[in-house]
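Thanks for the sequence, V.! I ran nitric oxide dioxygenase right away. Repeating your input here for the record:
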Amino acid sequence: MDNFARLLKESWTLVEEDRDRLSGRFYARLFLLDPGLRKLFPVEMTGQGDRILDAIVTATQVMDDPESFDEYLRSLGRDHRKYHVDAAHYATMGVALLDALRSTAGTGWNLEYDQAWRDAYAAITATMLAGAESDENPPYWHAEVLTHERYGTDTAVLTVRALQHPLVWQAGQYVSVEVPRHLPQVWRTYSVANAPNDDNVLEFHVRTPAGAGWVSGALVRRTKPGDLLRVAAPMGSMTVDRDSGRDILCVAGGVGLAPVKAMVEELAGWNRARWVHVFYGARHADELYGLAGLEELVAAHPWLSVTPSCSDDPDFDGERGDVPDVVARYGPWTSHDCYVSGSAPMVRATLRALAEDEVPPQHIRYDTFGNL
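Predicted structure:
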């Protein structure tokens, strides 16, 4: 397995700096092999290739961890049911992927790399198909928007009710969301911002920069109560370990608050002995849209503390600085279970701070957020 993983990672270095060309060649070959597959993809393909390539690369990187490999790919297979792909589609994608890898890598590609990717792709698709076939849920749920509240120009909190069929998730997980009225066949992942409940109601926190489009823009600016969305199967492993006796550190930046809020709500139902410390950061005080709700939870649960911080607001009456730096000032966190959620730079900085604090990697879980 070590040699197999080495071949995958070594060969990936031949193409990773040229992902746009790799993506373009992959789709050109895919649609040439089977023109009917084009209807499974959105009209505007920008960004679509990166998602598929990211999924494949992530899968190849965890192949030397059988438990993570199996769990990730089974979830991915269940999630891909929303695209209505089958075994024949996966086979065609495999041919297109290998052709794109060979042509992009050029003379550096060799037979060993070719066989490693063939074997990896076969294992990936077999596990994804097994996950899809074992799922008794629908490919996606229709969901009605119940409430929609704006915070400033770029953030919205909305609740939806999944219709017709129970949707089971764990606090800290995320789902894919489609806005079929505005952007059919374009999906974007969002963490569920509330603990599981019997009402099939999910809360989402969505942020989009001014002038941006895509799914986040549609959810913030064009969605209203009564609209119908589609929600796919829950994924993700940033969930509370109930068997642990360690105290908990949660670090959230911006709408990264969503999974942290869900976990705190879940903990409120059963936690009595573990201290929970939440650090919640933004640039300005008016971007701490979820602070009032957190403070209500603090008032009700003595084991919970919340420390807000602002990185670019000299008038803020609280901690100043980037949230990873604030967290580092309050350490050590070596004996805690740590959960981190926010933008990619914020998560990377927090992980560095926790590593410097010698927190064991197995005690850290994280999710990163981007914008569409």
